[in-house]
Amino acid sequence: MNVSKKQVEKLVKGCVNNNRQDQEALYKLFHADMLRVCRNYLPDKELAKEAFNMGFLKVFQSIKNFDAAAGELGGWIRKIMIYTAIDLCRKELKFNTVAADEQEWDDTFISPSVLEKLYFEDILENIRTLPYATQTVFNLSVLDGFTHKEISEQLNISEGTSRWHLSEAKKQLRALLENQGKNIDQPKERSTEAK
Predict the structure, then answer these.
(1) Ordered alpha helix ranges (H), the chain
(2) Which CATH number fits domain 5-92: 2.160.10.10, 3.90.600.10, 1.10.1740.10, 3.75.10.10?
(3) Which end of the chain lies in a sparser environment, N or C, as judged by fewer CB atoms within 10 Å?
């Protein structure tokens, strides 16, 4: 996002002073990206919109605490959106609890040749087919860089359970994406209708 430091300072100052034009400008500036963040965590579109709106309310309520020296405004807003989405979906999540020593973690993933053939949106659609809890752990770990410790604290699960869900997500995604990659390699069958 191409926003100068000066523009960010103006928007933040305006939002702190409850200037409606600056609040609207900030909202429009981050609308698409932050709605996508909420959608990554909440498969239901209405819940994602609810998290998005609640997240922006929190942004406007706490923007006076934003410190430009500590980080970028977009990253700060993104964190608020992630935590808001997690709060909203926490009660919806059903986790399989697995003891850490009972599960062998599979860290291999999908071959790059398969991934090259798929578009990013196709991959996101596959992620959305994962079970809700597994998808949430995958998003937090892979898309947003949370550690298993941070995930366990946010979702009130053990680190072993977090690792299991990440491993399960990788296993399921590998199967889905490799199957799609094979289908891309295969030529379409021609119709053999008799004339």
Answers:
(1) 5-16, 20-41, 45-62, 73-89, 112-116, 120-127, 132-138, 148-155, 159-185
(2) 1.10.1740.10
(3) C
